[in-house]
UniProtKB/TrEMBL annotation:
PANTHER family: MITOCHONDRIAL AMIDOXIME REDUCING COMPONENT 1 (PTHR14237:SF19), MOLYBDOPTERIN COFACTOR SULFURASE MOSC (PTHR14237). Transmembrane segments: none annotated. This is MOSC domain-containing protein. GO terms for molecular function: catalytic activity; molybdenum ion binding; pyridoxal phosphate binding. It comes from the Eukaryota. Residues 119-282 form the MOSC domain. SUPFAM superfamilies: MOSC N-terminal domain-like, PK beta-barrel domain-like. GO terms for biological process: monocarboxylic acid metabolic process. Keywords: Signal. It comes from Gossypium gossypioides. Residues 1-18 form the signal peptide. InterPro entries: MoCF_Sase_C, MOCOS_middle, Pyrv_Knase-like_insert_dom_sf. The keyword Amino-acid biosynthesis does not apply. The lineage of its organism: Eukaryota, Viridiplantae, Streptophyta, Embryophyta, Tracheophyta.
Length: 293
């Protein structure tokens, strides 16, 4: 039975491409000379890069014109404007984690901008959905693919989980440390650990794997400086040792639930999710130890 558990308070972009994620989300990547992805893990200054899309880009069915831009800002840098129309040039040999392929190259101006900003040769590329696919690890979900996100198209976290963590921290951290693309409120802390199937609007999302966290949550997103928290606190109560004592120990910490999404067959409904949409929990496990991780 559908159980109203929470409501949506934030998402990165509203149109849902049921397969690869929200429209415009994780479509771009900054790569080094050899085409390898930079991330905040090695280039924390990327935390200070801000992006802005035109408001219309969030409406369903909107297509960019010649004067539609992705605007990119960073401290000490001029505004960089990237046309939202597809660039013509292809870069071969782009790689992120286990995937490699070709991508669309955003050109020399973008390359110069990131090269100046990071102080090392860089290019900016866009996922080329017309020629490439990057499947999600079939061990966790079969038949889904992503663009340049780490591993899954969606990561959901709840405000309750963050509030609970912040009760234990001397200095509270904001949600941008965890960067979910779906943020929900109104549920118990860490309920999302248990969710294996939820419904938002006409979309059915499957919880496929607890999100194990790397170094990025320790990087302050306003200063790009890394510190010991929230890792140290999460090690005390969100580690595999605590949550999954009977499973193989890998010294991991968890925050959030990775998800994939299936569009259900409701006809005539917009392919969007909106702030305020209710979350219905259709299936769940009873403890975090039972969740896939
Ligand atoms: C988190 O803390 C543990 C224990 O201090 C340490 O072994 C681990 O490397 C840290 N992880 C990150 C991502 O900083």
């Amino acid at each position: 039975m559908a159980n109203l558990q929470a409501w949506l308070i934030y998402f990165l972009c509203s149109s849902v491409d049921a397969c690869t994620g929200f429209r415009w989300d994780r479509q771009w990547l900054v790569v080094n000379q050899r085409g390898r992805a930079y991330t905040q893990r090695v280039e924390p200054k990327l935390a200070l890069v801000e992006v802005n899309l035109p408001a219309e880009a969030f409406s369903e069915g909107w297509e960019p014109t010649k004067t539609s831009y992705l605007e990119i800002k960073a401290p000490g840098m001029d505004l960089l404007k990237i046309s939202l129309c597809k660039p013509p040039k292809v870069s071969d040999g782009v790689s992120v984690w286990e995937w490699s392929g070709s991508a669309l190259d955003e050109g020399d101006e973008a390359s110069k901008w990131f090269t100046n900003y990071l102080g090392k040769p860089s290019r900016m590329v866009r996922f080329n959905a017309a020629s490439e696919t990057r499947p999600v690890d079939p061990v966790y979900a079969q038949g889904y693919s992503i663009m340049f996100s780490d591993m899954f198209p969606f990561m959901l976290a709840s405000q309750g989980s963050l509030d609970e963590l912040n009760k234990l921290l001397k200095e509270p951290v904001p949600m941008n440390r965890f960067r979910p693309n779906i943020l929900v409120d109104g549920c118990e802390p860490f309920s999302e650990d248990l969710w294996t199937e939820i419904k938002i609007s006409q979309f059915s999302f499957q919880g496929v794997r607890l999100c194990s966290r790397c170094k990025v949550p320790t990087i302050n997103q306003e200063t790009a400086i890394a510190g010991p928290e929230p890792n140290e606190t999460l090690m005390k109560y969100r580690s595999d040792k605590v949550l999954r004592p009977d499973k193989k120990q890998q010294g991991k910490i968890y925050f959030g639930q990775n998800m994939v999404c299936k569009e259900s067959l409701t006809e005539g409904k917009a392919k969007v999710v909106k702030v305020g949409d209710p979350i219905f929990v259709l299936q769940k496990v009873s403890t975090a130890a039972e969740a896939v991780a």
